Amino acid sequence: GIQVDFDDGHCPTWRNTVQGLYNVTRAVHARLPGAPADIQECPVLMLRPRAFNMIEHHCMVNGKEVVGPLFDFAILMYHNAKLMSSLDVGPYFYLSKIEGPNETQLWNKIFTWTEHRL
Questions:
Q1: Deepest of 12, 38, 52, 73, by most Cβ within 10 A of its Cβ?
Q2: Quick one: how far is CA 47 from the chain centroid?
Q3: Which one, of 15, 18, 16, 20, lies nearest residue 3 by Cα?
Q4: CA neighbor of 39 nearest in space, from 50, 49, 30
């Protein structure tokens, strides 16, 4: 599979984050040079958001900075989830740095909420 890493393998500058998210969207929508013309021809595309200790300082909601992994997840889902789901190619997420049951439950709520809106 292919792992798109927004955590350890990513220098989270604003430019790098936006470019990385944009490249995933271009790949999913068959608009990224060098990527397969059909996302279904790819091995599994696994998206790895940042850990919860990372903050996205360039995005605010209700006057507060957004937690990095929620920003990554929201942008990736907004632009790609319907197409990926309709093609049965995900979206899939690799959550490598879960730090306990509370974080696991939070991700479960996020995934469940999102699934109901797809």
A1: 73
A2: 5
A3: 20
A4: 30
**CB 94 within 8 Å of CB 76:** no
| pLDDT tens by residue, 45-56 | 889 999 999 999
Distance CA 21, CA 75 (A): 7
Q: What are the CA-CA distances from residue 85 to residues 1, 30, 47, 55 (Å)?
A: 17, 15, 14, 28
Residue 31 lies in a domain: yes
Beta-bridge mates of residue 5: 48
**DSSP symbols for 13-52:** -HHHHHHHHHHHHHHHTT-STTS-SSGGGSS-EEEEPPPT
pTM of structure: 0.89
The 10s digit of each residue's pLDDT in 24-83 is 999 899 898 887 777 777 768 889 999 999 999 999 999 999 999 999 999 999 999 999
Residues spanned by the domain of 40: 15-55+76-117
In a domain, 8, yes or no: no
